[in-house]
Amino acid sequence: MSEVIPFSWTLPAELNGFCSPQSVRFTLTPFMSAKRFNCNLRAGNEYLFHFRVDFRNASEKYSKVDVDGVHCVKFKYRPGDDPTLIDRVTVEGDCVLQRFVHRV
């Protein structure tokens, strides 16, 4: 599966947003000339989570967030953000989305 960027996936309404224990996993391949890409959890036009990777140094070979399911990052929502309102997962930028998995 290779998806065209920008990629947008709408969460099924019966899930009532994006709450624990849900998870998403991306496998992305940046273009050789990539400048940046980002992954987002969105509630309408609001970004509740925004993960952006910039390639400022062409000699850097990778960015690592999660390895074989081992937890590396915990994101705490801002006061007033409601994860039950998250309705979309998006990926944008200079990459090819090789794999996208959503688990409930």
TrEMBL record:
**Gene3D superfamilies per record:** 2.60.120.200
Q: Keyword check for Cytoplasm, yes or no.
A: no
**Organism superkingdom:** Eukaryota
Keywords per UniProt: Lectin
- Which InterPro entries does this UniProt record tie to the protein? ConA-like_dom_sf, Galectin_CRD
Q: Does the keyword Transmembrane apply?
A: no
Residue stretches making up the Galectin domain: 1-103
Q: Which GO terms describe its molecular function?
A: carbohydrate binding
Q: What is this protein called?
A: Galactoside-binding lectin
Q: Which organism is it from?
A: Necator americanus (Human hookworm)
